[in-house]
Amino acid sequence: MDSSALLPGPPDQHGVGVVAPYDFALDRELWRWVPDDVSLHLTRTRYRARASDEAPVRTAVRAFGAVRPEVVAYACTAGSFAGGRNGERRLCDAMERCCGVPALTTSGALLETLRELDARRVAVAAPYPGRVTRRLTDYLADAGVPVAGRASLGLTERIWRVPYDEVAAMARRAAAGPADALFLSCTNLPTYDLLPPLEAELGIPVLSANQVTMRAALGRIGVRPAAAPAAA
């Protein structure tokens, strides 16, 4: 008997295109947010490209021409807030013109998620230098979301190597004020397993950059995200 005749597949799948910065190292964390019927098609911007520039993002999006994803996400927080809200919109427009499907960025996805949660004040924990973190608070303030507290680590590289205990300590410092939610910025910052224990400890929703990016991308195509990790 032909054993292949016993197999029902391959199953249908949804495709999500992800443009990441050249130094992105947390592919696996993105995958943990999507269900089994979703495939992530990742590509990266060229080496040392400035993260907020539209040209390298457009070039990266063209790599999706063969696989034709249903939605495209630019998975870079700093690169999508550095130009303010207008810059974020330009990035989305540039991606949509190149690929002809809905496009979003991490910073835009953050605003969507905060609106869905009715979170009017947010705490921000970011691995960046202080000046970059201030750009994020300016972006949020311009969107009508005041920042109730912030903390940063002052890093410019190897952010994916930050241990969970340092991320948690930074989160606690940021959340000392009266915030409705806490945002852990940077798609290259390890956060996945931290979210449930931090939410239980702080008593507010804790959002990560990769989480809001995948949530928004899947929402565009009517797919629910994979279940979040269970609290210990």
From TrEMBL:
Range of residues in the leader sequence: none
InterPro entries with a match to the protein in the record: Iso_Racemase_Enz_sf (IPR053714), MaiA/AMDase (IPR026286)
PANTHER family in the cross-refs: BLR3294 PROTEIN (PTHR40267:SF1)
Name this protein carries in UniProt: Decarboxylase
